[in-house]
Amino acid sequence: MITGFRDFDDALRALSLLQRRIDYVFEDWSPGVTIERRYRAPRAGWPPVNVFDTKEAFVYTAEVPGLADADVSVYVEEESLVIRGERKSPVPAGYEVRLREREPVAFTRKLPFPGRVEADSVTAVLKDGILTVTLPKAKETVPRQIAVKAT
Questions:
Q1: Which pairs from 61-67 meet CB under 8 Å and 24+ separation?
Q2: 71, 56 contact by CB (below 8 A)
Q3: Could you report the per-residue pLDDT of 35-65, keeping only the tens digit for each?
Q4: How much is the pTM?
């Protein structure tokens, strides 16, 4: 029985996909890759943030495990919320690092407001590794119900 070209082509495509995935896994360990690239900071999406819209406010929650309130700063700039922080990973005296999976990192996230806010009334609370920032909506943007009268 003769194998058709299509079967051969499918096998080559599968091998090519496997090779690309292997290359992706080992790309940071190839010769010539600098230490800075190998141990680069997390991508732009760190810390992960959720934004919720309530009737009175916008609520931003960010996961910042292991950070204290002194390690995080929250700013309102123009029409954005800015979260800055630094996760430190000090090595105790007399110890040598053998493996470090949670490397020190400094981060900044600039997140746009979904609407107008009262910048003077913003509150931020850090509890159990979750930063919760509450931005009250501007008075003119808070929805209000209008009574309908029958005539």
A1: 61/130, 61/131, 61/132, 61/133, 62/109, 62/130, 62/131, 62/133, 63/129, 63/130, 63/131, 64/126, 64/129, 64/130, 64/131, 65/129, 66/102, 66/129, 67/126, 67/129
A2: no
A3: 555 455 445 467 899 999 998 999 999 999 8
A4: 0.62
